Amino acid sequence: SKSDIKNIQWITGNSFTAERGQQQIEEHISTWDVHRSWLHWSEFLREEELKYSKRYHYRVCWSIPTRRKPIPRATASVYFVIEISKIKPATFPVEVFFTLESSRLIHRPEQCQFREKWLKDIIENKITLMERL
């Protein structure tokens, strides 16, 4: 339900920087209900100039390293886009959306509860594919 969705207070367009965007993504990820065995790292990928907005692209790479396999066989990436409107007032919060690797479905943090199963599915599919090859 909508009340179960955890979200953060996103920065406004006028106080946005690429670094602050990455910090906010980390802050948002901390609200996700994922087991502590999952580790992740994030990176800023690029800035995209559009007619009515500017988009900042980020990647968050997830894996579950173990004592036996400190280098995981596969990882799962979540791609974030933070969009700053050139039309809306700069005092409005940035727009944020994310997609999962191998999926076109666009998720908005305020409208969807992240599922750990999504990460597991990506990794399982990659391992299955590697075993077939």
Automatic annotation (TrEMBL):
Gene Ontology CC terms, in alphabetical order: cAMP-dependent protein kinase complex
Domain of life: Eukaryota
MF annotations from Gene Ontology: protein kinase A regulatory subunit binding
A Pfam family reported for this protein in Swiss-Prot or TrEMBL: AKAP28
Entries under PANTHER family matching the protein: A-KINASE ANCHOR PROTEIN 14
Record's protein name: AKA14 protein
Top-level taxonomy: Eukaryota, Metazoa, Chordata, Craniata, Vertebrata
